[in-house]
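question for whoever is on the cluster today: can someone run the full assembly for these? two chains, 827 residues total. i dont have access anymore since they changed the login thing
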Amino acid sequence: MKSPIGIFSMTSQRSHDDYQPLVIEKKWQDDWDKQNLYLTPDSDPNRPNRYHATMLPYPSGDLHIGHWWAMAPSDMLARFHRMNGYNVLFPMGFDAFGLPAENAAIQRGIHPQEWTTANIERMRGQLKRMGAMFDWSREINTSSPDYYQWTQWWFLQLFKNGLAYRTETLANWCPKCQTTLANEQVVGDGICERCESPVSQKSMPQWLFKITEYAEELLDFSDMEWPNSVLRMQENWIGKSEGAEILFEIDNPNISEVLSVFTTRPDTLYGVTFMVLAPEHPLVNDIINPEFSKQIKRYQEDSARVTEIERQSTVREKTGVFTGAYCLNPMNGEKVPIWIADYVLATYGTGAIMAVPAHDQRDFEFAQKYELPIKVVIAPENWSENQELEEAYTGKGNLVNSQEFTSLTASDAITKVIEHVESNNLGTKKTQFRIRDWLISRQRYWGAPIPIIHCVDCGTVPVEENDLPIKLPTEVEFLPTGQSPLSLAEKFVNVPCPNCGAPAKRETDTMDTFMCSSWYVYRYTDPANITLPVGPDATKNWPAVDQYTGGAEHAVMHLLYARFFHKFGRDIGVLRGNEPFLNYFAQGQVLGTDGQRMSKSRGNVVAPDEIVDQWGTDAFRAHLAFMGPWENGGPYSEGIIGISRWLNRVWILANSDYSQKNISSRDVEFLRLVNQTIQRVTHDLGEKSFNTAIAALMELTNALSASRESRDVTVENWNFSIKSLLLLLAPITPHISEELWRRSGEKKSIHLESWPVTDESALILSEIEIPIQINGKVKAKIMVPTDATEDTVLELAKTTDQVEKALAGEPIKRVIYVENRLLNIVI
RNA sequence: GCCGGGAUGGCGGAAUUGGCAGACGCAGCAGACUUAAAAUCUGCCGAGGAAUUUCCUUGUGUGGGUUCGAGUCCCACUCCCGGCACCA
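^ ran it for u. tokens below:
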């Protein structure tokens, strides 16, 4: 592929120079920088604030096409709103802590700090070449002490409010990254979100945040305009179930503990024929009948060896063993055998279930395998007593075999049974969530240290806020050993207890990097604040992000954590409002031209720098925006040549010395098209439909080319159309727009101009072409006055040859006329 | 299994409320300009047919339906993508 740029003939008869994007792009980027064009004031008396943000990049080394795909249209959107009279904040920064820095540093034998700083330098330059309106005065770097001091501050607030706690817990352990992971970071069939290794389980003391405290509120999406798919993902992840916790007495006078289970189907309580505990359930060892202890032990050991992935496989055949113990059904006192089986998860509900094989497929399969009784208590349609089920019946129906509850509908019975157990202290109504607390401990080096000191006498002591930041020591051996690298840094670890002064030890785990990105959008609004992460003036000016953009792969990670942080921040009086991101738009993912994910091994990586070198930033921006709907993503298209041709035509048009040659009546039509284009582009950019906005601009360009040839509109109208075109282009292709704007004699930047307004009166038509259908098939098209009545149109239609022929004297049964749309004659 | 989204020419895609399917662009074909190429400009471009500047038939994943009229609404299904998954 050879670049057409810069090889245009110099001998052409054109009166202007050629379009050289690289030259003008550099020129204007420097100029904008010099005049601080994109510095955003905290407020502006004449322009309401509007906050746009796009997810900040991880400084991996090079800006890749995914960054462009996410950020270039985001910039167009921010610029569009800026031109529409808002004081738009559109900041940029770097999410700089995290494993890749550490891994790269280990590979290259340099410090993660060095690697990160170099990458940020490089990527900042690449971002500047994008020509976006980023306000660089507010740039943040989450790995700088000025920033992570406040990440630590957030930890302390969570700790002081009882929402951060440390506990020995089974955690997801990535053997390759040598660190624990949050549930949200384990993807697919139990693999690490970062390195794609299979994740195992490991028990160790870990710090967690009680995101579960906010589970209910996190399900309230009422203040948010988000894609439905992302809301449903969060909803599924939070996983609310309503039901009851029911208490079963153990049938053994020596045991005082009761067995508690969670069920969403208290209506099926009379159908319980056995109980199942998870193998790890703490009650197992207490209730076990000694005769059975050997096989129970063996089963527990076996299931501990089975990986979490295998255990959660739905196709795996269910296994279990009888404990020899029984409990009593609280409704009727029936003796119910207690089993253990690993299809019951220790980590959900109470880690124990009441099994109702007739109405739960899993219990049904288990009962069949171990020949346990199956008792129907909800009658399927046309079911007769003692008829055996083929599978569990989970549908609606009325209760049978359920004493006083018999013949109630299942949904009524749920309420009645809950009332019954509550009034008899046999259980309570209960809402259960699937979401677990957020595990934030990482046993790696390149993260913010957790500001906690462990003292033998005082226990877990928070660092004084005045002592922040707790700086990450630089002289540390950070090779992954499974042990926190900070634990080897003696100077760091050994400190006096802030409480009693006795020798104590610092916490040596670092924080999950998702903590850094949970609050970063506020820091942009108040980047220099030295007393708070964000001050009250800033939250007043910028209470929330009005428009957030970024990939949906963060649906249940970043986007959920940030909502949790915001609600917590509100509750401690630091933040305003209920949500961090009022509008969120998830752009799709760009793939290689082969439709596969871009990767070096596949050799299908499209390098943005090369494209910019060859075609220019403006062409690349417009090309990305023109490829298709932003939310779809898809294979990268090679067709940037089309955009390049178009911009070249714009260049020629705007540089033309236009003079009118023919007096005509085309001016009305011409102005209509210009105004229609203003209307379409305004609508489309507002809807983030960049591809159709560009199509409309191309149509206008084509029409202008024709008018340039025919030279039959006034100079005034011509100039108006060119200015309109440049203004409409400004958010999409900021550099060529600026160059041509200034060449037209304007002294101020086009990016300080207002968005053009549609002249509605120019859109009014006196005549319109409408199709004439016979039985729904188009037979003719006729011009009619826009205010024509049905009768007029029908008479006009009848006079056309095609309609006359098609009617062939048949009587007209019916006429449908849609004003200014169509006429359909039914015969 | 559950939740969400999708399927339109050779390709990317367009189509306010049910109202002319295929805008805009790529690729392709033909032409103008040119010594030539690039650039620029013009025309053609879903399929089949009539023997062709026009007209007919057909056509938006499949099968039904509603309607004067369906890419769009309803029912059933197939395939693809994303998420969750023994969650009681």
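summary bc i know u wont read the tokens: The first helix of chain A runs from residue 21 to 34. The first strand of chain A starts at residue 49 and ends at 54.
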